[in-house]
Amino acid sequence: MDAGKMTVSINKAINTQEAAVKEKHARTCILGTHHEKGAQTFWTAVNRLPLSSNAVLCWKFCHVFHKLLRDGHPSVLRDSLRYKSELIDMSRMWGHLSEGYGQLCSIYLKLLIIKMEFHTKNPRFPGNLQMTDRQLDEAGENDVNNFFQLTVEIFDYMEWELNLFHTVFKSLDMSRSVSVTAAGQCRLSPLIQVILDCSHLYDYTVKLLFKLHSCLPTDTLQGHRDRFVEQFQKLKDLFYRSSNLQYFKRLLQIPQLPENPPNFLRASALSEHISPVVLIPSENSPPDSETLIETEDLVGMDTLSHQSLSENTFDDIFGSSFSNDPFNFSNQNGMRRDDKDHLIEQLYKEIAMLRDEFGNFKSESHRLVTNLKGRIQELEAELAEQKHLREQAVDENEFLRTELEDLKRRREDTEKAQRSLTEIERKSVANEQRYTKLKEKYAELVHSHADLLRKNAEVTKQVSVAREALVDTERSKKELEDSYQRVNEHTQRKAHEQIKEMDQLQGALESNKQEIHLLKASIEASKQEGQIRIMELKESVIDRVLQEAEFIIQESLRQLDEPHYSSGMISTDFLITRALAAVQSTEKMEEAWKAHMANPSDITLLLPPLVQFAHRISEVILQGALTPTSDRLNDGCRTCGTEALSYLSSLQKNETEGSVHCSRVTAALKNISEIAQELRPPTLDIREEELGDLVEKEMAATAAAVETAATRIEEMLNKSRTDDTGVKLQVNERILGSCTDLMQGIQALILASKDLQKEIVESGRGAASQKEFYARNSRWTEGLISASKAVGWGATVMVDAADLVVQGQGKFEDLIVCSHEIAASTAQLVAASKVKAEKDNANLSRLQQASKVVNQNAAGVVASTKCVMSQIEEKDTMDFSSMTLTQIKRKEMDSQVRVLELENELQKEREKLGELRKKHYDLAGVSEGWGDAAE
């Protein structure tokens, strides 16, 4: 990833628009820090932004910077410390504003400063705060003083997280649905990072306080307990309020804290503590590819800093890290990325890169056009101003001429002013000086008009000078009117001289008129030159896009011969749909080109069909390589690409045979569809009656299986209470009790799913019968049947595993795996039921609530099992006090051999698991039509 692309993403993510930061831009920024191993490019781009003058811009900067500190490269913290003082000053500045985003920005900046200081003091804590219990112990170096200080620092950290949380809610109008507006989401989106931080900080605080209470007197820790209780109540309230907002319901599942805070005075209460986990329910992921990637980022970003980045970048950051999350249902269901996913991801990135380049090119073209238009408008405005100035001067000249004629008629009255001759002579001298100054100013006006052709920027100043000169002229005219009432023959001579000067002024104004005509001609020439430049720019854009389209198709033809593309992972049905879509794009391209030839000045109607044509032709060629192929299909794809290149070449040369080449491209695409149609595998023909009966049968079988499983668990629990005592009874009650809660949640889920399914069928079948509806929507029906089977099978397997564990013959790990499978199957059932339901459907809301209960109960089974496992491991701790040195050495060697054997077995088992998941993915894709784009 180059610095230019990262800079573009930073400017798109941090803008003045009051809307949430788009995840795809934030993700590009995060990947950029890992690529350059630091945040130099980020800070270079940010320093150019006016963060101190726009509060929305500063708020979105804080959001992106928070993401980089959490999920970016570890060197982001080091590169950002040098800007710490600037962030402090900016926080103080925004703190003076009590309205809008000002106070929010001030608190958010303070939180980021606290986060930087915390991680600087405690380098063992990663940016996303994900740590194991062992790493938490190592952070305190097994020193109670370090643990005491660390707890205080976490309290301070949590305090600012809660301050930001509370301030955002306080700034919202909770009487309105603010979470569905762009402005509301702009304020709420950074709280996702705060929720992720708070969940970890709360968990570590509980564990550290239990550790401190085991080492220090209770009185010493009274202040810690009081502060924890205060933060516990605030966090519980904020989590509850957040979980009720529609915005968060769509993106993540917020954990709910227990009713009462943990009792640190009772050491056994630690086993009752369940770490809060922020979940991303898979049923909330929309089918759109871009949205799906962004939703997964909310989970993947939280585990980013634990990946080594030495292997495949995308899988390490957004795929492999999911295996550490016990409630990642997509990974447990076997949906790992394979070569096809990498190819699709690569193509998406190339498409996004081309779109960005085209957008930048289009923006630059628009900017040049806008500048030229603005310059033309400026010149036209200056021309109008000069024209107005000329008209005003002509009017003033006519007025002066009229006044002079009046003076001539009044000169007979000058004999009455003989007594004031001395004073009149003095005033005449003054008038002569004024007229000399006026003459000089008019000369300056003439000179300024001559300079206008060379220095266009001085037009405004020249207008001002001309206006001052006209004002002096008017003032002098009034004085002349008074003077000529008393002037004698001497003043008559002066009047003749003034008339002569006015004639000279008229000549100067005529010269200015000619200069204005020259300026207008220059402006017209500039306008024509700008239009020619715009046309040349449009032609350049079309040529560049045509070249890029040829490159895309040529690249797909080159990749056609690559061996790893011949994997046969795409169904022939999907290839047929892509070929038909390419035919439509070809027809649209031909129509758009004809429209462009009719009106070459408009390129907006040509570029989108051209880009779509290139990508769809390339897609058909690549999908043909991935389809179970034959020589005919391979040759057909190659012919299609060759004809498409010939078509684009004819468009570049403006040849008249473009329509002929277009027809050849269409014929090649239809040939590919016919070959793919011949390669289609035989499909299973299920009658309408069989498919409808099968749905009812499988739903009834699932309900019966879950009911049977719940009954068996209840019988096992009663038997254990009768036959077992002591620790074994406690273990069995804990495990079977959590399994009972899980089965009850699944029963409620099945009932809600049946109600929703019935409503979907009744509202969607119209005049058709129920079985006809199932047959018409066969792909959806098959998915519903598959999900129902998975739920029933998971419940049965869990009961068998619990039975063996209670009898002492099973493994605790079986229960954990069964819990994960049930959670994943539940998500599959909800997704299958949700596809055709309305967004605000009451039964859908009940089904989603039941799904959350199942997820929580599955987490309870896992937590109970792990707790029992830890108790048994502590009980079975070996005593080496009676062994000799030789015996201990022998045991050590045996243990090392056993460790190597287990590691070898673990590696082989992981490889086996990967192959099984891949096979599961292939079979599920064939049976449920994942590769069928039409569905």
From TrEMBL:
It holds the Pfam family ANTH. SMART domains: ENTH (SM00273), ILWEQ (SM00307). PROSITE patterns: ENTH, HAMP, I_LWEQ. GO terms for cellular component: clathrin-coated vesicle; cortical actin cytoskeleton; cytoplasmic vesicle membrane; perinuclear region of cytoplasm; presynapse. The keyword Acetylation applies. Residues 1-126 form the ENTH domain. It comes from the Eukaryota. Residues 683-924 form the I/LWEQ domain. The keyword Hydrolase does not apply. PANTHER family: HUNTINGTIN INTERACTING PROTEIN 1, HUNTINGTIN-INTERACTING PROTEIN 1. Belongs to the SLA2 family. Homodimer. Interacts with actin; homodimerization promotes actin binding. Interacts with CLTB. Interacts with HIP1. Interacts (via ENTH and I/LWEQ domains) with BCL2L10. This is Huntingtin-interacting protein 1-related protein. It comes from Xenopus tropicalis.
